[in-house]
Amino acid sequence: MSNDNLDKKSTIHLNSNHHAEFININSHLYEELQREAEEKHFTTKNYFEIILDRHLRRNHMINRIWPELQIAGVDEELILVVNVIDKKFFNVRLHDKYLFCEQDKSTGCNHTAFVWMQAEDLDFRW
Ligand SMILES: [Zn+2]
After folding, report:
1. How much is the pLDDT for 109?
2. Whose C-alpha in 19, 114, 119, 121 is 20 to 30 A from the C-alpha of 61?
3. Under a CB-based contact definition with an 8 Å cutoff, are residues 68 and 85 in contact?
């Protein structure tokens, strides 16, 4: 049974000097990114490259600023952050418009900043 109409894919060809790969992505996602690229006056190709580069630079920055912190678990609106050096755990809770660290009683400690920096990676139920 085909569900082509529900699940159309667009193909991106990734190519570097040493590797070439085809990736199929959801057509809706492709069209959204293409629209964003046009708004920002980039070609779609350049925009994909910028997004991938930005993603890696963000991850490097997170690792450089907080090498001791890791996300140990996510349970709906609760993010468990662990300091692997001190072996301490921190409950960062997602509220409507802010994150709150229950151990520091703070919206602005390292743990909330650490979670904000990767909020897009977490499957929050906003
Ligand atoms: Zn904290």
Report:
1. 98
2. 19
3. yes
What's the domain count of the chain?
A: 2
Amino acid at 99: L
The stretches of 1-126 forming alpha helices (DSSP H) are 27-39, 44-65, 110-117
Residue 5 has pLDDT above 60, yes or no: no
Please tell me the chain's helix, strand, coil percentages from 3-state DSSP, rounded to the nearest 5.
35, 30, 35
104: CA distance to ligand 1 center in Å? 5
Whether residue 98 is found in the same domain as residue 112? yes
pLDDT tens digits, 78-90: 999 999 999 999 9
CA of 51 to the centre of ligand 1 (A): 29
44's tokens: 């779609």
> Which of 64, 63, 95 is CA-nearest to residue 78?
95
Residue 33 sits in which domain range? 9-65
Q: How much distance in Å is there from the Cα of 11 to the middle of ligand 1?
A: 42
The predicted-structure confidence for 23-77, as pLDDT tens digits, reads as follows 888 899 899 999 999 999 999 989 999 999 999 999 999 999 999 999 999 988 8
